[in-house]
C-alpha cells in the first residue's frame, strides 16, 4: 500500500517554492509514496490526517515562520492533536539570515503534535538583508536544491520502507 507524504508550504519570493519542488522531485523518486503538495492556505485538517509524513516549508519572516504558515498550524492544530503521534516530519526554511526562529517554531508545534523529526531543519540562507533584497525574487543555488531533493528522497524512502 502506498504511503502519503504531505508537503505544506508558503512562499512570497519563490525561494521556498524552489526548495519544495526539489524535495518533491526527490520524494517522487520513491514509487510507493504519493506526494501531495499544498500551499499553506489550502491545507486543512483532513490533508494532515491523510498523510503518513510531512515536510513543512516556510520563509523566515522577522525571525519567525511566515504568517500564512502559522495560520495553517493554527487552523489544523487542534483538529489533528492526538491523531498523528509518531509520524515523521522535516522542515525547509528559506531565510535571509539564520532561519533558526522559524525552525524553532515548527519544532515546537511538531512537538505538541508528537511528531518525530527525521532530519535537522534544512535552512537555506539567501543573505537578503536590505528591503529590496528581501522583496526580490530568490534564486536558490543548485547545491542547496540538491540538499532539498535528498531530504525529500530520504523521507519518502523511510516512509516506503516502514522505517518511519
Task: Give a verbal description of the structure.
This protein has 164 residues and is α/β, with parallel strands linked by helices. The chain has one domain (3-161): Flavodoxin domain (Rossmann fold), CATH 3.40.50. 45% of the residues lie in helices and 24% in strands. It is built from six helices and seven strands, in the order βαβαββαβαββαα. Strands 1, 2, 3, 4, 5, 6 and 7 form a seven-stranded mixed β-sheet that branches. α4 (100-113) links the parallel β5 and β6. α1 crosses α6 (142-161). The longest helix has 20 residues, at 142-161.
Architecture blueprint of SSEs:
Elements: E1 3-9, H1 15-28, E2 33-39, H2 45-50, E3 53-61, E4 64-65, H3 67-80, E5 88-95, H4 100-113, E6 116-117, E7 122-125, H5 131-135, H6 142-161
Parallel strand pairs: 1-2, 1-3, 3-5, 5-6, 5-7
Antiparallel strand pairs: 3-4
Helix pairs in contact: 1-6
Q: What is the CATH H-level superfamily? A: Flavodoxin domain
The number of distinct helices, counting runs of at least 4 residues, comes to 6
The radius of gyration is 15 Å
Shape type: globular
Elements, N to C (H/E): EHEHEEHEHEEHH
Number of separate structural domains? 1
Mean pLDDT equals 97
- Which stretches are low in confidence, meaning pLDDT under 50 for 5 or more residues running? none
Q: Mind describing the biggest β-sheet? A: 7 strands, mixed
Q: Determine the strand fraction and express it as a percent band.
A: 15-25%
CATH architecture identity: 3-Layer(aba) Sandwich
Helix content: 40-55%
N-C termini distance: 15 Å
Structural class: alpha/beta
CATH class: Alpha Beta
Amino acid at each position: 500500500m502506498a504511503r502519503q507524504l504531505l508537503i505544506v508550504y508558503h512562499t512570497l519570493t519563490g525561494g521556498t517554492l524552489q526548495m519544495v519542488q526539489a524535495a518533491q522531485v526527490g520524494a517522487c523518486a520513491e514509487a510507493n509514496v504519493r506526494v501531495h503538495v499544498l500551499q499553506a492556505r489550502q491545507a486543512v485538517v483532513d490533508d494532515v490526517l491523510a498523510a503518513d509524513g510531512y515536510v513543512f516549508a516556510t520563509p523566515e519572516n522577522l525571525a519567525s515562520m511566515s504568517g500564512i504558515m502559522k495560520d495553517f498550524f493554527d487552523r489544523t492544530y487542534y483538529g489533528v492533536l492526538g491523531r498523528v503521534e509518531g509520524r515523521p516530519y522535516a522542515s525547509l526554511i528559506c531565510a535571509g539570515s539564520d532561519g533558526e526562529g522559524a525552525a524553532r517554531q515548527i519544532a515546537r508545534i511538531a512537538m505538541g503534535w508528537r511528531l518525530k523529526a527525521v532530519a535537522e531543519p534544512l535552512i537555506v540562507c539567501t543573505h537578503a538583508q536590505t528591503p529590496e533584497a528581501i522583496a526580490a525574487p530568490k534564486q536558490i543555488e543548485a547545491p542547496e536544491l540538491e540538499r532539498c531533493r535528498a531530504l525529500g528522497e530520504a523521507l519518502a524512502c523511510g516512509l516506503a520502507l516502514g522505517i518511519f
